[in-house]
Amino acid sequence: MARSRQPLIAGNWKMNGLRADALALAAGVAEGVRRAGWTDREVLVCPPATLLMAVADAVIGSGVLVGGQNCHADASGAHTGDISAEMLRDVGAGHVIVGHSERRTDCGETDTIVRAKAEAAWRAGLLPIVCIGETLAEREAGRTLAVLETQLKGSVPAGAAAAKLVVAYEPVWAIGTGKTPTVAEVASAHAHIRHVLGALIPDAGAVRLLYGGSVKGSNAGELLAAGDVDGALVGGASLKADEFLAIAKAA
Q: Which residue in 72, 95, 100, 192 is the catalytic one?
Protein backbone atom coordinates (compact mmCIF):
# COMPACT_ATOMS: atom_id res chain seq x y z
CA MET A 1 0.00 0.00 0.00
CA ALA A 2 1.27 3.42 -0.89
CA ARG A 3 1.54 5.25 2.43
CA SER A 4 1.29 8.60 0.68
CA ARG A 5 -2.42 7.75 0.32
CA GLN A 6 -4.10 7.71 3.71
CA PRO A 7 -5.87 4.36 4.21
CA LEU A 8 -9.65 4.45 4.54
CA ILE A 9 -11.59 1.66 6.25
CA ALA A 10 -15.30 2.10 5.53
CA GLY A 11 -18.10 0.07 7.06
CA ASN A 12 -21.30 -0.36 5.04
CA TRP A 13 -23.97 -1.44 7.52
CA LYS A 14 -26.48 -1.95 4.68
CA MET A 15 -30.09 -2.54 5.87
CA ASN A 16 -29.17 -3.70 9.34
CA GLY A 17 -29.83 -2.44 12.85
CA LEU A 18 -32.37 -0.60 14.91
CA ARG A 19 -31.53 2.44 17.04
CA ALA A 20 -30.28 0.51 20.07
CA ASP A 21 -28.13 -1.77 17.91
CA ALA A 22 -26.69 1.16 15.98
CA LEU A 23 -25.82 3.17 19.07
CA ALA A 24 -24.12 0.20 20.70
CA LEU A 25 -22.12 -0.52 17.54
CA ALA A 26 -21.21 3.12 17.04
CA ALA A 27 -20.08 3.39 20.66
CA GLY A 28 -17.88 0.31 20.30
CA VAL A 29 -16.24 1.57 17.12
CA ALA A 30 -15.81 5.08 18.53
CA GLU A 31 -14.19 3.80 21.72
CA GLY A 32 -11.83 1.56 19.77
CA VAL A 33 -10.76 4.41 17.50
CA ARG A 34 -10.28 6.72 20.49
CA ARG A 35 -8.08 4.15 22.24
CA ALA A 36 -6.03 3.52 19.10
CA GLY A 37 -5.49 7.21 18.51
CA TRP A 38 -4.89 6.66 14.80
CA THR A 39 -3.76 9.68 12.82
CA ASP A 40 -2.50 7.73 9.79
CA ARG A 41 -5.81 6.19 8.67
CA GLU A 42 -9.49 7.09 8.45
CA VAL A 43 -12.38 5.02 9.81
CA LEU A 44 -15.84 5.56 8.32
CA VAL A 45 -19.22 4.05 9.15
CA CYS A 46 -22.23 4.17 6.82
CA PRO A 47 -25.41 3.31 8.73
CA PRO A 48 -28.94 3.15 7.29
CA ALA A 49 -30.38 6.61 6.65
CA THR A 50 -32.81 6.33 9.57
CA LEU A 51 -29.88 5.95 11.96
CA LEU A 52 -27.43 8.39 10.42
CA MET A 53 -28.14 11.35 12.68
CA ALA A 54 -28.04 9.26 15.87
CA VAL A 55 -24.77 7.62 14.83
CA ALA A 56 -23.22 10.94 13.83
CA ASP A 57 -24.06 12.34 17.27
CA ALA A 58 -22.74 9.21 19.00
CA VAL A 59 -19.27 9.37 17.42
CA ILE A 60 -18.62 13.11 17.80
CA GLY A 61 -15.08 13.71 18.98
CA SER A 62 -13.93 10.15 18.37
CA GLY A 63 -12.39 10.65 14.93
CA VAL A 64 -14.92 8.26 13.34
CA LEU A 65 -16.37 9.58 10.08
CA VAL A 66 -19.98 9.03 9.01
CA GLY A 67 -21.47 8.55 5.57
CA GLY A 68 -24.62 7.59 3.70
CA GLN A 69 -25.21 4.46 1.64
CA ASN A 70 -26.90 6.16 -1.30
CA CYS A 71 -28.32 9.47 -2.47
CA HIS A 72 -30.60 10.83 -5.16
CA ALA A 73 -29.10 12.89 -7.97
CA ASP A 74 -31.46 15.82 -7.32
CA ALA A 75 -31.22 18.19 -4.36
CA SER A 76 -35.00 18.07 -3.78
CA GLY A 77 -38.24 17.27 -5.54
CA ALA A 78 -41.01 14.74 -6.03
CA HIS A 79 -38.96 11.61 -5.32
CA THR A 80 -40.92 9.70 -2.71
CA GLY A 81 -38.72 7.61 -0.45
CA ASP A 82 -35.43 9.05 -1.73
CA ILE A 83 -32.83 11.09 0.14
CA SER A 84 -30.69 13.82 -1.36
CA ALA A 85 -27.00 14.34 -0.80
CA GLU A 86 -27.87 17.64 0.89
CA MET A 87 -30.08 15.80 3.38
CA LEU A 88 -27.24 13.44 4.21
CA ARG A 89 -24.91 16.37 4.74
CA ASP A 90 -27.50 18.09 6.93
CA VAL A 91 -27.57 15.21 9.43
CA GLY A 92 -23.82 14.79 9.72
CA ALA A 93 -22.57 12.78 6.74
CA GLY A 94 -19.29 13.62 5.05
CA HIS A 95 -19.23 10.71 2.59
CA VAL A 96 -21.69 8.71 0.51
CA ILE A 97 -21.47 5.34 -1.24
CA VAL A 98 -22.74 5.42 -4.83
CA GLY A 99 -23.09 2.63 -7.35
CA HIS A 100 -22.84 -0.29 -4.95
CA SER A 101 -23.52 -3.53 -6.81
CA GLU A 102 -26.63 -4.12 -4.73
CA ARG A 103 -28.01 -0.79 -5.96
CA ARG A 104 -26.96 -1.57 -9.52
CA THR A 105 -28.62 -4.99 -9.36
CA ASP A 106 -31.65 -4.40 -7.12
CA CYS A 107 -32.52 -0.94 -8.42
CA GLY A 108 -31.19 -1.06 -11.96
CA GLU A 109 -28.70 1.76 -11.46
CA THR A 110 -26.61 2.42 -14.55
CA ASP A 111 -23.21 4.04 -14.84
CA THR A 112 -24.99 7.23 -15.93
CA ILE A 113 -27.10 7.26 -12.75
CA VAL A 114 -24.05 6.56 -10.61
CA ARG A 115 -22.17 9.43 -12.24
CA ALA A 116 -25.08 11.80 -11.54
CA LYS A 117 -25.11 10.72 -7.90
CA ALA A 118 -21.37 11.32 -7.59
CA GLU A 119 -21.92 14.82 -8.99
CA ALA A 120 -24.71 15.32 -6.46
CA ALA A 121 -22.32 14.34 -3.68
CA TRP A 122 -19.88 17.04 -4.82
CA ARG A 123 -22.69 19.56 -4.99
CA ALA A 124 -23.54 18.86 -1.34
CA GLY A 125 -19.94 18.79 -0.15
CA LEU A 126 -19.78 15.01 0.29
CA LEU A 127 -16.98 12.69 -0.78
CA PRO A 128 -18.40 9.95 -3.03
CA ILE A 129 -17.18 6.36 -2.85
CA VAL A 130 -17.85 5.09 -6.37
CA CYS A 131 -18.28 1.31 -6.48
CA ILE A 132 -17.44 -0.92 -9.43
CA GLY A 133 -17.11 -4.67 -9.85
CA GLU A 134 -17.75 -7.65 -12.08
CA THR A 135 -20.25 -10.50 -11.73
CA LEU A 136 -19.20 -14.14 -11.61
CA ALA A 137 -20.37 -14.65 -15.20
CA GLU A 138 -18.29 -11.70 -16.37
CA ARG A 139 -15.27 -12.98 -14.48
CA GLU A 140 -15.59 -16.49 -15.90
CA ALA A 141 -15.85 -14.97 -19.38
CA GLY A 142 -12.53 -13.21 -18.84
CA ARG A 143 -14.14 -9.78 -18.92
CA THR A 144 -13.18 -8.48 -15.47
CA LEU A 145 -10.81 -5.74 -16.62
CA ALA A 146 -13.07 -4.66 -19.49
CA VAL A 147 -16.06 -4.38 -17.14
CA LEU A 148 -14.07 -2.33 -14.64
CA GLU A 149 -12.91 0.02 -17.38
CA THR A 150 -16.42 0.52 -18.73
CA GLN A 151 -17.87 1.17 -15.28
CA LEU A 152 -15.10 3.59 -14.35
CA LYS A 153 -15.39 5.61 -17.53
CA GLY A 154 -19.16 5.74 -17.19
CA SER A 155 -19.39 6.39 -13.45
CA VAL A 156 -16.61 8.89 -12.71
CA PRO A 157 -17.76 12.44 -13.52
CA ALA A 158 -15.74 14.93 -15.51
CA GLY A 159 -13.68 17.16 -13.27
CA ALA A 160 -12.85 14.39 -10.81
CA ALA A 161 -9.72 14.69 -8.69
CA ALA A 162 -8.15 12.69 -5.90
CA ALA A 163 -9.49 15.04 -3.23
CA LYS A 164 -13.03 14.54 -4.54
CA LEU A 165 -13.15 10.80 -5.23
CA VAL A 166 -12.70 7.36 -3.71
CA VAL A 167 -13.14 4.22 -5.84
CA ALA A 168 -14.12 0.86 -4.36
CA TYR A 169 -13.56 -2.38 -6.26
CA GLU A 170 -16.08 -4.99 -5.14
CA PRO A 171 -16.26 -8.17 -7.20
CA VAL A 172 -19.99 -8.91 -7.04
CA TRP A 173 -19.42 -12.63 -6.62
CA ALA A 174 -17.36 -12.04 -3.45
CA ILE A 175 -19.84 -9.83 -1.57
CA GLY A 176 -21.24 -11.70 1.42
CA THR A 177 -20.23 -15.09 0.04
CA GLY A 178 -17.06 -15.71 2.01
CA LYS A 179 -15.21 -16.02 -1.30
CA THR A 180 -12.41 -13.61 -2.16
CA PRO A 181 -10.09 -13.17 -5.13
CA THR A 182 -6.46 -14.02 -4.59
CA VAL A 183 -4.18 -11.22 -3.48
CA ALA A 184 -2.64 -11.26 -6.95
CA GLU A 185 -6.07 -10.91 -8.58
CA VAL A 186 -6.94 -7.98 -6.31
CA ALA A 187 -3.61 -6.31 -7.11
CA SER A 188 -4.17 -6.84 -10.85
CA ALA A 189 -7.66 -5.32 -10.72
CA HIS A 190 -6.49 -2.32 -8.70
CA ALA A 191 -3.51 -1.74 -10.99
CA HIS A 192 -5.90 -1.72 -13.96
CA ILE A 193 -8.25 0.71 -12.19
CA ARG A 194 -5.30 3.01 -11.47
CA HIS A 195 -4.25 2.80 -15.13
CA VAL A 196 -7.74 3.65 -16.41
CA LEU A 197 -8.05 6.53 -13.94
CA GLY A 198 -4.80 7.87 -15.37
CA ALA A 199 -6.66 8.79 -18.56
CA LEU A 200 -9.49 10.42 -16.62
CA ILE A 201 -7.88 12.28 -13.72
CA PRO A 202 -4.66 14.31 -13.66
CA ASP A 203 -3.72 13.11 -10.17
CA ALA A 204 -4.91 9.51 -10.53
CA GLY A 205 -1.94 8.29 -8.52
CA ALA A 206 -3.38 9.96 -5.43
CA VAL A 207 -6.92 8.51 -5.68
CA ARG A 208 -7.65 6.03 -2.91
CA LEU A 209 -8.76 2.60 -4.13
CA LEU A 210 -10.64 0.39 -1.67
CA TYR A 211 -11.21 -3.35 -1.90
CA GLY A 212 -14.52 -4.83 -0.81
CA GLY A 213 -15.91 -8.34 -0.78
CA SER A 214 -15.90 -10.64 2.28
CA VAL A 215 -13.18 -8.62 4.04
CA LYS A 216 -12.70 -9.74 7.64
CA GLY A 217 -10.11 -9.54 10.36
CA SER A 218 -8.47 -12.80 9.33
CA ASN A 219 -7.80 -11.80 5.70
CA ALA A 220 -7.56 -8.00 5.97
CA GLY A 221 -3.80 -7.93 6.43
CA GLU A 222 -2.94 -9.67 3.18
CA LEU A 223 -5.66 -7.91 1.17
CA LEU A 224 -4.64 -4.48 2.41
CA ALA A 225 -1.01 -5.25 1.60
CA ALA A 226 -1.82 -5.91 -2.05
CA GLY A 227 -0.55 -3.41 -4.58
CA ASP A 228 -2.65 -0.26 -5.04
CA VAL A 229 -5.05 -1.18 -2.20
CA ASP A 230 -5.62 1.84 0.02
CA GLY A 231 -8.28 0.49 2.34
CA ALA A 232 -11.45 -1.56 2.45
CA LEU A 233 -15.20 -1.23 2.04
CA VAL A 234 -16.47 -3.69 4.63
CA GLY A 235 -19.96 -5.22 4.75
CA GLY A 236 -20.92 -7.89 7.25
CA ALA A 237 -17.76 -7.60 9.32
CA SER A 238 -18.51 -3.93 9.99
CA LEU A 239 -21.51 -4.97 12.10
CA LYS A 240 -19.20 -6.25 14.84
CA ALA A 241 -17.08 -3.56 16.45
CA ASP A 242 -14.16 -5.83 17.35
CA GLU A 243 -14.01 -7.35 13.87
CA PHE A 244 -14.25 -3.98 12.15
CA LEU A 245 -11.56 -2.51 14.40
CA ALA A 246 -9.31 -5.48 13.62
CA ILE A 247 -9.60 -4.61 9.93
CA ALA A 248 -8.83 -0.98 10.66
CA LYS A 249 -5.80 -2.04 12.69
CA ALA A 250 -4.55 -4.09 9.73
CA ALA A 251 -4.40 -0.92 7.66
A: 100
